[in-house]
Amino acid sequence: AIDPLVGRLAGERHLLLYRSVFADGGATRQGLVLDVAGLGEHLRARTLAAGALPGASLAFDAGDAASPASGDGYRYRHRFAEPFDALGAQLALAPLDGGRGAGVIYALAGLVAVTGALGLFAVYRMVAVAMAYAERRSNFVAAVTHELKTPLTAIRMYGEMLRDDLVPGEAKRREYYRTITAESERLSRLVDNVLEFARLEKGAREMRVEAGAVGPVVEEVAALLAPHAASLGFALRARVEPELPPVRFERDALLQVLVNLVDNATKYARDAASREIVLACRREGDGVVVGVRDRGPGVASRHLGRIFEPFHRGEDELVRTTQGTGLGLALVKSLVERMGGTVRGDNAPGGGFEVRVALPRAAG
Ligand SMILES: Nc1ncnc2c1ncn2[C@@H]1O[C@H](COP(=O)(O)OP(=O)(O)OP(=O)(O)O)[C@@H](O)[C@H]1O
Ligand SMILES: [Mg+2]
Questions:
Q1: How far is the CA of 266 from the CAs of 209, 292, 303, in angstroms?
Q2: Is residue 277 within 8 Å of 236, Cβ to Cβ?
Q3: What is the dotted CATH code of the domain comprising 210-359?
Q4: CATH classification of 136-202, choosing from 1.10.287.130, 2.40.37.10, 2.40.30.60, 3.30.1330.10?
Q5: What is the pLDDT of residues 131-185, one digit of tens each?
Q6: Which of 266, 301, 302, 329 to mutate to test the pocket of ligand 1 (most atoms within 8 A of CB)?
């Protein structure tokens, strides 16, 4: 659970923005400190710099500070909405000769005040975005820790039991061997993903994109992953249209993309009535689309726009029923874009989810 952002003045000069996040039985605070004077400076520069308002001044202060003695001229006090409600702004204008100019200038003054408020709102948005990212990152660390620990614990425990001959019966032993293999696979995929993501973020990932036929690679991957899918009760099929044009891709990157997409399909469609996964290659426009489709529940529309963001997961860490770190699709997107392609995910007509990777046709 996360409390809304709260603003508090710290002394005269600083605004503290913070919120409480409750997770794993504890509470943490996230927040940041804004320098009020600096903020005022920034907003003044933005709103008054044009010099359209001779003799105007804009002051930011604690919202409940008494307003200075009113002199002649025009004053406008503004209080900001939460979480900036501890702040006020005061716009003052030198007295003007009544007349034609004055009305225009007063109108402008109102505009300046509004612009100031908008400036604050922009700051607020930036803060909110940065904090949402920080929150997803910390969710991610929690998830990775969890994801590393669980398989390791299982591998170690089953390994020790097998080593010490504590497992009676061949059937049980086989089950334990299977678990150890499956958990190690999951671990390697996680480690691969984290390393690859770090390389991509650093810009240290070299792509060796070559022109070639993507169909055979997709068929190969399907054959490679079919036994694993079958062990989870899924039928994995490749459907490749004949006579596809050559496209530009890197084999390793495509492999990692498809492994992640098939992993998602087996994870999120595991309770579906039909456990079928289709890897399809179709011609589309100039290039080729590689689609991975399952028959599962798909993605709720409020998540659909965000599933390709790093660390975004469809489920909250506290109540989740599936394992994952929210890295898979972000990696898919980065890799595909580095190959010059595009990717999108949609709920398929007739049920299920399909991620479509569009690869550009090789020139010449
Ligand atoms: N085939 C799918 N069906 C339903 N939901 C999906 C599917 N693929 C992805 N999602 C949703 O998109 C989110 C992001 O997927 P992504 O692969 O990036 O992360 P993850 O599977 O949670 O973790 P990771 O892949 O790092 O182990 C998932 O948490 C899930 O909610
Ligand atoms: Mg995934």
A1: 29, 11, 19
A2: yes
A3: 3.30.565.10
A4: 1.10.287.130
A5: 777 777 777 777 778 778 888 888 999 999 999 999 899 999 999 998 898 888 8
A6: 329
